[in-house]
């Protein structure tokens, strides 16, 4: 019975054969390792840009909510009176 090693391109290599297929497997594995290393270095050098966009969206939503609360507070009569008294006191000094 022969053991088969399946590669990503669908080619099967007989492990009982001592000829060129095992040497070819070594080259392919080396190439795959080099490609994986290159991909990892690329991902480290260029962080994902989508994450920054999502963070900006969260900040904008939070700022909009804060602005809405602030407007609602400033429209109330108690806050208007408080701010008017503060300004009058500051100008009278």
From TrEMBL:
Annotated transmembrane regions: 56-74
Key words of the record: Membrane, Transmembrane, Transmembrane helix
Transmembrane among keywords: yes
Top-rank taxon: Bacteria
InterPro entries hit by this protein: DUF4244
Name this protein carries in UniProt: DUF4244 domain-containing protein
Species in which this protein is naturally found: Bifidobacterium criceti
Higher taxonomy: Bacteria, Bacillati, Actinomycetota, Actinomycetes, Bifidobacteriales
